[in-house]
From TrEMBL:
Organism encoding this protein: Methylorubrum zatmanii
Family, per entry: Belongs to the inositol monophosphatase superfamily.
Keywords: Hydrolase, Magnesium, Metal-binding
Cofactor: Mg(2+)
Taxonomic classification: Bacteria, Pseudomonadati, Pseudomonadota, Alphaproteobacteria, Hyphomicrobiales
Keyword Cytoplasm carried by entry: no
Membrane spanning residue stretches: none
Superkingdom of source: Bacteria
Name of the protein this chain belongs to: Inositol monophosphatase family protein
Length: 265
């Protein structure tokens, strides 16, 4: 990974942070988008700011953002979620973040998870990951001791809810919510499994280089790599053994996850 691209990604996070902080816990007009998710002037303002800076610095790069769209057709594309966790943001909860990724030919090669209010920043690139500049590694707890985050219990219905219940019943501790912060905590070894559903590329691409660089795995529920057309469901795990155990519980029967998804520790 070129150092200039990584520096630029961190620069984008520097630009976004004060704008998010300026709008936090202030009177905001909240609109509801077609997918029933909320959006504010902060979401739109941050994305517009980052898009302008990317166009200035790298006019040949593509841009895909939650608010203004785009695609992954360019050789290099910046993928932006200006406020991941808008519901937390509008409720005054500081567990929202700005997600910035750079994808090359549809695969994220660097990612930044910036937590504006908590003043914490994770980034990953080149098979390594850091929190505020210090190297991080995922944990090694077994399933019976694992700490599980589930993005929101009301995202799951029917067979999905049953699968989540099977996995949840075998871990040591479970929590709900957290948005991107849960995945960042996994990369730092504080939790071990995160289940998500209803996600999009801009929710996930920035997480992948951070989790993988710290020694973890993030795939879909069948153990397949996350691609631009994934089904919105992800399972992130701290280590291969835990990942395999989680996939078995989600499937409801023993299975062998693809070895190509595993990363050596």
């Amino acid at each position: 990974m070129r150092d200039d691209l990584l520096r630029f990604a961190l620069h984008l996070a520097d630009l976004a942070r004060p704008l998010a902080r300026a709008h936090f816990r202030t009177p905001l007009a909240v609109e509801t988008k077609a997918d029933a998710s909320p959006v504010t002037q902060a979401d739109r303002g941050i994305e517009a700011l980052l898009r302008a800076e990317i166009r200035r610095a790298y006019p040949d790069h593509g841009i895909l953002g939650e608010e203004e769209g785009g695609d992954l057709g360019a050789a290099r594309t910046w993928v932006i979620d200006p406020i991941d966790g808008t519901k937390s943001f509008v409720a005054g909860l500081p567990l929202f973040g700005t997600l910035i990724a750079l994808a090359e030919h549809g695969r994220p090669v660097l990612g930044v998870i910036d937590m504006p209010i908590l003043n914490e920043r994770w980034h990953g690139a080149g098979g390594r990951a850091w929190l505020d500049g210090a190297p991080i590694r995922t944990g090694a707890r077994p399933l019976s001791e694992a700490r599980l985050f589930v993005n929101s219990p009301d995202r799951f219905r029917g067979a999905e809810a049953e699968a989540v219940a099977r996995l949840s019943g075998e871990v040591g501790l479970r929590r709900y919510g957290g948005d991107c912060y849960a995945y960042a905590l996994l990369a730092s070894g504080h939790c071990d499994l995160v289940l998500g559903a209803g996600l999009a590329v801009y929710d996930v691409f920035a997480l992948m280089p951070v989790i993988e660089g710290a020694g973890g795995l993030i795939t879909d529920w069948q153990g397949r790599p996350i691609t631009p057309d994934f089904d919105g469901r992800v399972v992130a795990a701290a280590n291969p053994a835990l990942h395999g155990a989680a996939l078995e519980r989600l499937a409801g029967e023993p299975m062998e996850p693809p070895l190509a998804c595993f990363r050596s520790r």
